[in-house]
Amino acid sequence: MIPGPILIIKHGALGDLVQALGPIRAIRRHHPDRHIVLLTTAPFRPLMEACPDVDTVWVDERPRLPHVRGWLALRRRLLYGGFARVYDLQTSDRSSIYFHLMGPGRRPEWCGIARGCSHRQPAAGRSSLHTLERQAAQLKIAGIASVPPPDLGWTEADVGRFGLPEAYVLLAPGCAPHRPAKRWPAERFAAVARHFSEQGIRPVLIGAAGEADLHARIMALAGTATCVSLAGETSLLELATLARGSLAAVGNDTGPMHVSAAAGCPTLVMFSAESDPVRCAPRSPLVTCLQRQTLDQLPVAAVTEALDGLLAPERAAAIRLVL
């Protein structure tokens, strides 16, 4: 392999980016003396600039196809980087275009799915693999045999401004707005909030600013439960730090649950038929997944029983040992 820096492409979404943290660490271990650049999108820049496995973060403006100037500017930037190898962890049609954008002539070694690249992962069977297995198989083609699990243990932020007590749990009741079937009903999140509040554990609702109304509804349904809403108030570094200090986290199949799991928090994720935990669930000894065809079929009792199991004294001791 010729000398030169390394480029990693990973745009998101949040859960996908978190699941790429293990491969990013593996790439760093494989190229300990190379300068590593991550090409990602703006929402993830602050988090990944703090990542010890990345030296420089570039924001991809993701030009639209008719935006010729944007594509030419991106091509100049990629060529100017003088990369020896590119690891395309996004493996999308867009990121594969970037391979062709760096031609004609000699291109860097490229690990991805782009036609004609030097380390191409075959399409057969890719879609049936869990994200972590698919990425590990991709990196194996490039000579990286071992890939660690996602880890956000390096995150650190001052979360004192939230004024949370020592005993709290995180609730993530939202998801992508266009995927409403992935949401457990608000009144059941309210019941879980009451369940914890009655034990002296503060329920903390997390999510994007656009979920403030959902949080307000859950808090109203929870009645006397002492809930706190942090909708739109946490950075990703703060979210990971909060997860590391939380007794547990429960939520729909959404990005914050991947953050919670990678931060070492006991995590319960609820799935409908809209997504497949076999292919995309966070993987950790501290993660429990519950699935129903539709989430209105998942009763509160099943969730609180699973959460109580996560918080059992013998499990808590094991969690402390892991951390």
How would you explain this protein's 3D organization?
This protein is an alpha/beta fold. It has 2 domains: 6-141, Rossmann fold (3-Layer(aba) Sandwich); 160-322, Rossmann fold. The protein contains 13 helices and 12 strands. The protein has a 6-stranded parallel beta sheet, with helices on both faces. Helix 7 crosses helix 8 (212-222) and helix 9 (236-245) packs across helix 10 (255-262). The longest helix is centred in the N-terminal third of the chain and has 13 residues, at 68-80. It is elongated.
Distance linking N and C termini: 37 Å
Low-confidence stretches: 314-323
As a percent range, the share of strand residues is 15-25%
**Helix percent band:** 25-40%
Highest-level CATH class of the largest domain: Alpha Beta
CATH architecture of the largest domain: 3-Layer(aba) Sandwich
Structure annotation, total helices: 13
* SS content category: alpha/beta
Q: Main sheet? A: 6 strands, parallel
CATH-defined topology of the largest domain: Rossmann fold
The figure for the number of domains is 2
- The radius of gyration is 21 Å
Which of globular, elongated, flat, extended, rod-shaped describes the shape? elongated
Protein traits:
37% helix, Rossmann fold, 2 domains, six-stranded parallel beta sheet, disordered C terminus, 323 residues, elongated, 13 helices, alpha/beta
What's the topology here?
Blueprint: E1 6-9, H1 14-19, H2 21-30, E2 36-40, H3 45-49, E3 56-59, H4 68-80, E4 85-88, H5 93-101, E5 109-112, E6 119-120, H6 131-141, E7 168-172, H7 186-197, E8 202-205, H8 212-222, E9 228-229, H9 236-245, E10 248-252, H10 255-262, E11 267-271, H11 277-280, E12 287-291, H12 300-310, H13 313-322
Parallel strand pairs: 1-2, 1-4, 2-3, 4-5, 5-6, 7-8, 7-10, 8-9, 10-11, 11-12
